[in-house]
Design a protein that fits this description.
Elements (H helix, E strand, L loop, with lengths): L12 E4 L15 E9 L2 E8 L14 E4 L7 E2 L11 E2 L5 E3 L2 E4 L2 E2 L2 E2 L2 E3 L7 E2 L30 E4 L5 E5 L3 E5 L10 E2 L12 E5 L2 E8 L6 E7 L14 E4 L10 E7 L6 E7 L8 E7 L28 E2 L4 E4 L6 E2 L11 E2 L15 E2 L8 E19 L6 E8 L6 E10 L1 E2 L1 E18 L3 E9 L2
Antiparallel strand pairs: 1-25, 2-3, 3-4, 5-32, 6-9, 7-8, 8-11, 9-10, 11-12, 13-14, 14-15, 15-16, 17-18, 18-19, 19-20, 21-22, 22-23, 24-34, 25-29, 26-27, 28-34, 29-33, 29-34, 30-31, 30-33
């Protein structure tokens, strides 16, 4: 069996880096798109499309929901919509609460469906019929791909007005009021916007008596977000602001395609935020970024300043453990650098690296991955000197496909003892191991799952 020989470093890719504060954008260590973020009680929920399955729109990851109590540390465990596992699961809406039930409107197999659960974390079940998407008992979609009046049955979002009435919007400017069953649309309308052309990722929200309708233009690196607003009703008539483009690629910052996203605010405040997919990795390898959404005194929206810093913690982080700096990282191999190929914008000039340091740089946007020929990948860290350690958090690459691994520790880099891991494949992120050992070195041996890490955190008790 391959071991990580710290005394013979020449046989391994290695790096040294000091511990840095985790950067704001992207906010989640995985490839995600179409984020719908909402705060429910003391928890933030991010419902999104899982990217990174390497077949474009011909496939997708399973339905999972990422949660966080501080907006910095995110996690998920298992899938939350059983019937949708194995289906094309895209663009889940923001979860909406009505009479102690939670409603979700994902795109399944290129059609919009409704689902319901007793908790925002699920499990969700199909609302209007058998709890399946296959066979003769499968329910009809709320809106099919070829929707009414030229609309496209994807990318639904639902808004509940102050009077309790529900409204749904979807791609190509489709809209309708929903009946009390939360699944039957009333008469369909097409929202008249200032700008024409293909449009998806709509979002409808209300602030200080004004209804805002956001919609995308174009796509890929050239995504833009525009908006219109109404002081009358969620379905208009709408007013067209002079400066209606609120988000567009920032070439100076190298931030591309602020595409399909959502708007949310922290409860009890007037602090609003714009969540979006960033397209700088190309194809279905997108990530979730969040920046501030700021309003003028007259209620119009200021253009969003896209940043790498993001918005940081939106609530205080609570932890009884102390984060320990990692001195060095080493791995049995690394993938070669990958030059990203532009699709719509030739100015995109990114190269993704896969070096071990990427897993200890406190950035959700970098990752280490083993070479494709590495049949038993190993990743290790050096804390600099032996100390008492109580916990490791491991954010694997492609976590929604699951991982099995072995975790070992050492004081000298030669003698290793088991301290964690599991032989069964578990779908979650992060994977956590709790123990009480004195160690300088740790190593992870991959048993099953993609051999790669977004981030690795080490903790001790105070």
């Amino acid at each position: 069996m391959r071991t990580l020989a710290w005394v013979i470093a020449i046989t391994f890719f290695h790096s040294t880096i000091s511990r840095a504060q985790r950067s704001g954008n992207p906010i989640i260590p995985d490839l995600l798109a179409d984020p719908s973020i909402v705060q429910i009680n003391d928890t933030f929920y991010c419902y999104a499309t899982t990217d990174g399955y390497n077949q474009g729109l011909a496939t997708s990851g399973p339905p999972v929901v990422w949660t966080s109590t501080d907006f910095v540390n995110w996690h998920f465990k298992g899938t939350f919509f059983p019937a949708a596992v194995g289906q094309l699961y895209w663009a889940p809406s923001t979860v909406t609460k009505v009479k102690n039930r939670y409603y979700l409107y994902p795109t399944i197999n290129t059609n919009i469906y409704a689902a319901v659960a007793a908790s925002p974390a699920g499990p969700f079940h199909v609302l209007n019929g058998a709890d399946t998407f296959a066979g003769p008992t499968a329910p009809k979609p709320m809106v099919p791909l070829k929707g009414p009046k030229g609309t496209k049955g994807i990318d639904a979002e639902v808004f509940i007005d102050d009077d309790g009435k529900a409204y749904m919007v979807w791609a190509q400017r489709g809209a309708a009021r929903l009946h009390d069953d939360m699944v039957t649309p009333d008469s369909y309308v097409v929202i008249d916007t200032k700008r024409s052309g293909y449009s998806e990722g709509p979002f409808l929200f209300k602030r200080k008596g004004i209804y805002y309708y956001l919609y995308t233009l174009s796509g890929h690196e050239n995504y833009q977000y525009a908006y219109i607003y109404s002081k009358i009703s969620p379905l208009g008539p709408f007013e067209f602001p002079e400066n209606d483009i609120i988000a567009t690629t920032d070439h100076t910052q190298g931030i591309y395609g602020p595409g399909h996203g959502s708007v949310f605010n922290v409860k009890g405040t007037d602090n609003y935020y714009f969540a979006y997919l960033e397209f700088g990795r190309g194809s279905t390898n997108r990530q979730v970024w969040v920046d501030n959404l700021i309003f003028n005194d007259d209620g119009t929206i200021k253009p969003v300043v896209l940043t790498r810093e993001g918005v940081g913690a939106l609530k205080p982080a609570k932890s009884e453990l102390i984060s320990i700096p990692i001195r060095r990282a080493r791995a049995s191999s690394s993938l070669p650098d990958l030059k990203i190929k532009p699709i719509k914008d030739s100015t995109l000039n990114r190269t993704e690296t896969y070096e071990p340091q990427n897993a200890i740089d406190q950035s959700n946007g970098t990752r280490w991955m083993a070479a494709a020929t590495d049949s038993l990948a190993v990743f290790g860290i050096d804390l600099g000197y032996a100390r008492k350690i109580n916990k490791l958090e491991i954010y694997f690459v492609k976590p929604t496909a699951g991982h099995a691994y072995k975790l070992e520790y050492s004081t000298n880099g030669k003698t290793w003892k088991l301290c964690g891991g599991h032989s069964d494949v578990q779908i979650q992120s992060p994977h956590t191991d709790d123990f009480a050992v004195t160690a300088r070195y740790f190593k992870i041996t991959f048993i099953k799952g993609v051999p790669g890490l977004w981030e690795l955190n080490v903790y001790q008790k105070p």
